[in-house]
Amino acid sequence: VLARSFTEPRPSATAVDRARSLLERALGASKVMTDRAQCEPFATDDSDVIAPVPDAVVLASSPEDIARTLEIAQATEVPVTPRLAGTGRTGGAVPLAGGIVLSMMGMAKIKEIDRGERIAVVEPGIITGELHEAVEREGLFYPPDPNSLKMCTIGGNVAENAGGPRAFKYGVTRDYVLGLEAVLMGGTRLRTGRRTAKGVTGYDVTALLTGSEGTLAVFSEATLRLVPKPPEVGTLLALFLDVRAAAEAVAAIVALGLLPRCLELLDRATLDAVRDRGVSVDERAGALLIIEVDGDAHACERGIEQIGEACTQAKALDVLVAQDAAQRARLWSARREMSPAVRALARRKISEDIVVPRRSIAPLLDCVARTSEKTGIRSLTYGHAGDGNLHVNFLWNEPDEIPRVEASIEQLFRDVMSFGGTLSGEHGIGILKAPYLGLEQSDALIDLQVRLKRTFDPKNLLNPGKIFPAAGHRAC
Ligand code: LAC
Ligand code: ZN
Fold first, then answer.
1. Distance of CA 383 from the midpoint of ligand 2 (Å)
2. What is the mean pLDDT of the chain?
3. Contact 82, 61 (CB under 8 A)
4. Atom of ligand 1 nearest to the CA of 146
5. Of all protein residues, whose CA lies closest to atom 1 belonging to ligand 1?
6. Which of 339, 342, 354, 393 best tests ligand 1's pocket when mutated (most atoms within 8 Å of CB)?
7. Distances, alpha carbon 323 to alpha carbons 14, 304, 456, in Å
8. Share of residues in the chain with pLDDT > 70 (%)
9. Whole-number Cα distances in Å, 158 to 47, 77, 135, 178, 234
10. E-assigned strand segments in 241-317
């Protein structure tokens, strides 16, 4: 009841019946679920958005299954929503119009790891953390590391252009997608991109599809760029009196041209939540940075030294260096405890993923504090400070607080815009941010994207209701 529900126009009962029987005939009954109880888990994802229960769930195990499903969806005019692990934060995988959910979780193979060319060819359902382990066994490295990496999949990461702590040094998913095998509405299969180190042929359709949030095409395969595995990793934890001091340290580290692979910030409220979970953090600390460097032993040592120096100059209360892997794991415990710690604070939370220029981190956090004071909605912030990418979380308990949560979110986005920032650094727009797209993008730019969407999906059947603000689809 506390979650927010949204809907899009539903397909007719006749269209649904036709689609179900065509799908069963084309794919076999074992790959098509139509039982309401079986379909119910596919109505939500990690965003807490509640959508209608889909009319059918297709469990694809091949590109042909995807193509047939998209052909039938087009012919019967039944909407279709692609889905993988459902770990998304903005409702990208929820079927706002009911219809068909198309799951690629059954396509989870690593088809190839080419050490010489440093590429991996994978199916969309491979778990990101499993890909990490497989390529690292070969001395290679796939940097994008969303914090849900034990559950989320490469297909979902590509659809959302996911990031993670290591994005500060290494960039996000899009920086590693060389090519895709994609299936279009109607069932056309095509390959985009390349498997060579360089290549500029034609428009960069691979980049367009990456981050298209399941609205343009469905992926059946991805060709990923890998890098050599860094031989050593060093981790530091720096404690500060407040976020202003921590933000100054972030600015100093960036200005010195130091390039740690992670530069993570936790604010006071987040630290308190972590302390509540029994993780001991120096009581004086009102902010904390987790900083990680990688490279050869010499580079790590030098990086740790320089970063430690920069933190001390920025008035760090304490700088701790992990001496071994076990200590390193302990230092990360504060970061890992975060999501359960924050979830325990209230019955509902929403985690935004705004980005501001790094110099605006402290002023933005002042704005957030003022907004919380005004609306009475509790907030806390942590995130990828090196990128200026912050997870501002709003927490609430009762449905009657939702209008004030909405007001807090809108104020946050307006403040972010005033600093020259962006609405989303890694979670996408989905449904939750669609009403605010116009705060950042001009009508002309939104219109261009809507026309692109129409080119790919003229009947608006592929993941309808996402990204673009549409009148009347918002109901709390
Ligand atoms: C994180 C997710 C919320 O960084 O993006 O923890
Ligand atoms: Zn994040």
1. 6
2. 94
3. no
4. 5
5. 147
6. 339
7. 65, 12, 53
8. 97
9. 18, 26, 18, 11, 29
10. 262-266, 287-295
Please report which confidence band the pLDDT of residue 4 belongs to, taking 50, 70 and 90 as the band edges.
low
Structure tokens at 165: 């702590």
Give the dihedral of Cα atoms 301, 307, 312, 317; nearest 10 deg: -90
- Give the position of tokens 């985009």: 192
The predicted-structure confidence for 250-277, as pLDDT tens digits, reads as follows: 999 999 998 999 999 999 999 998 888 8
Identify the residue whose tokens are 């998304």: 88
Q: What is the DSSP string of 254-266?
A: HHTT---SEEEEE
Per 3-state DSSP, the chain is made up of helix, strand and coil in percentages (nearest 5) of 40, 20, 40
Which residues does 225 contact at the CB level (< 8 Å), separation at least 6?
118, 119, 175, 176, 177, 178
E strands in 40-79: 56-59
Among 348, 340, 400, CA closest to 379: 348
Q: Which helix (H) or strand (E) holds 369?
A: helix 361-375
At residue 85, the 3 state secondary structure works out as: coil
Amino acid at the residue 55? D
